[in-house]
Design brief:
single chain, Rossmann fold, 2 domains, 42% helix, transferase, signal, UDP-glycosyltransferases domain-containing protein
Length: 212
Amino acid sequence: MVFLTENLHFVLFSLLAQGHMIPMIDIARILAHRGVVVTIFTTPKNASRFNSVLSRAVSSGLQIRLLQLHFPAKEAGLPEGCENFDMVTSLDMVKKMFRTIITLQQSAEELFEALTPKPSCIISDFCIPWTAQLAEKYHIPRISFHGFSCFCLHCLHQLHISEILENITSESEYFTIPDIPDEIQVTKEQLPGAVTFNSKDFGELVRAAECC
């Protein structure tokens, strides 16, 4: 059943990673089934991965559309066409991906401004902090999407406040996550890419966006 929700328009921004994009596409379909207009911002390579799924959704009457942002991979020092985290092969490439995502703000805002109907809400991956500024500028709510469980988020919080990672130089050295009831040991290479990115500036941007 399609519910009539006149003029509501949700704009979705997903991190360029399959583990984030797949649930975001599911969210888009759920919203569209309730009569909401949904626009998904992504890049050409990532759009091609979901064209068939979304084409079927649109054919069934759902109002979902993709807007493609140019991803300057070559300019960022990445291989041409490298637009998803499943295409990177080193921590250095992970860092370049995150830095390049930050640079997409201006082009995204230009497209966002021209959207019709006027956007009602942003659902954004927490790793895209500039969407908080976009929501503030257009006076609409921003819902932060986390692909992690609550327990994982708590562990990441403990890593942040303890600053334990600053003293660990080896990617394969096991260490204990501090201040949780059980002893859980991990290595830096097992942690999510956003954690091992090791950029205080980026981390502060993410935390500031989460507080908006």
